[in-house]
Design a protein that fits this description.
The protein has about 170 residues and is of the alpha+beta class. The protein has one domain: 2-Layer Sandwich (TATA-Binding Protein), CATH 3.30.310. Helices cover about 35% and strands about 25% of the residues. The protein has 4 helices and 7 strands; from the N terminus they run αααβββαββββ. The strands form 2 sheets. A 5-stranded antiparallel sheet has the order 3-7-6-5-4, covered by helices on one side. Strand 4 and strand 5 form a beta hairpin. The protein starts with a helix and ends with a strand.
Length: about 170
């Protein structure tokens, strides 16, 4: 098997899974469109729109959180710039760190995001979720056991931020 094919397959699956988590899709069963089903619950508080949250401020928040975690943002990269134009509704950052540094880095990124106005969204999986107005953020780390293209002892940290219109 071509080594890159496994990465593409696993990465594609990770992206699809992340997108499903980000949009609220999952195995929660059929959607309840009744008025009772539409009522907000105590476990999922409504987040009011964050005034001034733009693609540029979201990018600045991610960069600040990475720096606070001791990660040089220039050591990774983004895929949301096409032909020199930034996507107005998305920002992502991916980079590698030594595996022992991944856990502490994730632990430091979260509180910095919260200090910058992001609200943590409860999640039952290994992906950390945050929200700021209409912007949703996913934060995760994956090791060489999940991504075959990584060298032994390295982990990839990924932050994906997407704007969803109300």
């Amino acid at each position: 098997m071509h080594r890159g094919t496994g990465l593409l397959t696993r990465h594609g699956l990770a992206v699809l899974t992340a997108a499903a988590v980000l949009t609220g899709c999952g195995s929660a069963g059929p959607k309840d469109d009744s008025p009772a089903g539409a009522a907000p619950s105590a476990s999922a508080p409504h987040t009011p729109p964050a005034a001034g949250a733009t693609r540029d401020t979201v990018e600045a928040d991610v960069v600040a959180a990475l720096r606070k975690a001791g990660i040089d943002p220039s050591s990774g990269g983004s895929t949301t710039t096409r032909n020199g134009t930034k996507r107005p509704d998305m920002f992502d950052w991916m980079g590698t760190v030594k595996t022992p540094e991944a856990g502490p880095a994730l632990a430091a990124v979260g509180p910095e995001l919260e200090r910058l106005g992001w609200q943590k969204v409860p999640a039952s999986d290994s992906v950390l979720r945050y929200q700021k107005g209409d912007w949703k953020l996913l934060l995760a780390a994956m090791g060489s056991d999940a991504i075959s293209a990584l060298q032994e002892g390295d982990s990839m940290i990924s932050l994906t931020v997407t704007k969803f219109e109300p």
